[in-house]
Amino acid sequence: MRALTLIEARVLATLMEKARTVPDSYPLSLNALLLGCNQKTSRDPVMDLSEPQAQAALETLKAQSLVFEAASSRVPRFEHNFQRGFGVNEPQAVLLGLLMLRGPQTPGELRTSSERWYKFADIASVEDTLAELKARGEDSGATMVLQLPRAAGMREQRWAHTLCGETLQPAQRSSGDGAMDMDPETEPISLGQAERLQQRIAALESQVLQLQGQLAALHKELGLSQA
Questions:
Q1: What global pTM score does this model have?
Q2: 185 within some domain
Q3: Which residues are paired to 160 by β-bridges?
Q4: What are the pLDDT digits (tens) for 2-31?
Q5: Are both 113 and 204 inside the same structural domain?
Q6: Which of 19, 94, 116, 191 has minimal Cβ neighbours within 10 Å of its Cβ?
């Protein structure tokens, strides 16, 4: 199965979320799906999809049998087929759905985020499920999750899904309403590269602060103005 686009992942994960959190409203109409995709909370990145974008994603997902149009409804409604499509069980599907919706997270964050989706007994259960997904990818050559290098100041390592490929999405810029727009001319960078860049930036910021302190002390010692 080919890698998902960012929009396809958002549409698919939103259907997965609503099936578990608001079952009385599921399957979703296109309007309800669009509202879920564009939520400003519990989404990383925040998006501002248009109806044609969501409809196009639904069509490609339907072609891969990852989404079906519900029968016996005057208004078209859509439901996901994620677990059968990817051959995963419920706990595995929950973690992948959360990673698609909310970005990289630690096992502790995933357990908290999953409360309305699925009840993991403890953090160890989350870690075991992530390990299963990782081992399964190593055996089949179809990676689904990736453990990221530990970020500076964090005790736990974060995990990310790789259903959109093993790279971060292209660099994003903020639009006027705070949503994130994709820059098609920007080359994607790997997750490892992003982590190293963040660590490098933190180190440089620390060095700048040290230099500023040394410069202030030197000005004071020489009786010079810092203007």
A1: 0.72
A2: no
A3: 146
A4: 899 999 999 999 999 999 999 999 999 999
A5: no
A6: 116
